[in-house]
Amino acid sequence: MLRFVTHITLILLLLSLSAAGTATRAARCHALSNNSGPGQDVPATTQRTIRARSGDTLKRVAQRLGVPLAELVRLNGFTENARLRKGMKIVLPAGSDSSANSGGDAGPVVGKRITLSDGYSLEVDEVWKDGDEIWYRKGNISARLKNAVSSVKPIIKTTAPGPAGTGQVATVVPPKSLAEKLPAPIWIYLVGGARFRVDEVQETSDGAWYSRGNLSIFLERERIARIERDQPNSTGPRGLGRDWTSGNPLIDQLIRTNGNRFGIDPYLVFLVIEQESHFHARALSPKGARGLMQLMPGTAARYGVRRPFEPQENIRGGTQYLKELMGMFGGRVDLVLASYNAGEGAVVKFGRTVPPYRETQDYVKRISKRYKAGTPTKDDAANSASRP
After folding, report:
1. Do 108 and 92 belong to one domain?
2. DSSP assignments along 153-220, one per residue
3. Could you give the CA distance from residue 327 to residue 114 in angstroms, rounded to a whole number?
4. Domain range enclosing 270
């Protein structure tokens, strides 16, 4: 009987020890699931956490939130450059502000607004510091800022209460000032005096990337004279048809007059002249092409151009030639440009396609891409027509 009682006592003792061990393991698993890493030595009641984004490291989190990197490493037990799993909880130092990433009442960060020392501001997806350099990402493009930065502020998505029973409606906090909402226009001045307006520009050692609408285009350094930003109170001309100039009022007027006369977009004529002669009225090519629109002698004679170095006659003849090509190729700008460069016979020869000549293909690509970026949409035209 005594032996039986002893066995029962041992069994009960083992069961109690097993239950205690199970509880301990469960507590440890729960702690790990909160962060998926060792190193939690801050009481749970004082810990603040965020969720890791795709591609995050502790170093990137520290830069984004402005918290000490060494403290993040200590709390989370990962190296500073270890790739974190998306959605993983990251413990923040006590007193840090995690509202920008935790999706609290203030809403999540949907971007950053960078304000430069000259007052120009731009909105980007992400910004970080690498040594003494400041980099930003917008879409799939990352670039380094060359100008001094005045401030970097988060763009917060807030939630506003909707009608009863409809839940919440997401809104984005508007910019604080009109200057931030409407950045100063940027003008690229070309060698020879021409200029055109762009939305954004990022200079490199080889040239500059500029954007118009949804397109990004590269311009070689040797073609750029300078890049300027209008002041916020500038009263210079703006609007459709005013965001380009040859630098010569007479040539600008001739481009618009002949474009309207022959039904050719003046901006297309502007781009052809800029590519052909860089607005040098007495330009002469090794093959004998003359003047602003580089008319060959046969083409000049066909359209009655007797003085090809005179801007009036040259632009009239070149624009008339473009009109004829438009009719011949059904308004296809790529084939019109290919014909202007290589001759309409070459386009017909290759089955009404752009000839496989490197020079011609580069010519078509350069002008058509810039033309597409500068062509207004129907909404732009309607807005322009409604202006006083």
Report:
1. no
2. EEEEEEEEE-STTS-EEEEEPPPSSHHHHSPPPEEEEETTS-EEEESEEEE-SSEEEEEETTEEEEEE
3. 48
4. 248-382
- Among 72, 98, 124, where does a domain finish? 98
Residue tagged 């040239």 (tokens): 207
pLDDT of res. 30: 42
**What value does the mean pLDDT take over residues 263-281?**
92
pLDDT tens, position by position, 183-232: 567 888 888 778 888 888 887 777 888 877 666 778 888 888 888 876 44
Q: Sorting pLDDT into bands at 50, 70 and 90, what band is 374?
A: low
Q: 278 and 328, same structural domain? A: yes
206 found inside a domain: no
Q: Full-prediction pTM beyond 0.85?
A: no
Candidate list 276, 310, 344, 359, residue with the active-site label: 276
Domain assignment present for residue 28? The answer is no
Element (H, E) at 227: strand 224-229
Question: Is 276 designated active site?
Answer: yes
Cα 198 to Cα 244: distance, rounded to the nearest angstrom: 10
| Banded model confidence at residue 309, pLDDT cuts 50, 70, 90 | very high
Is residue 100 over pLDDT 50?
A: no
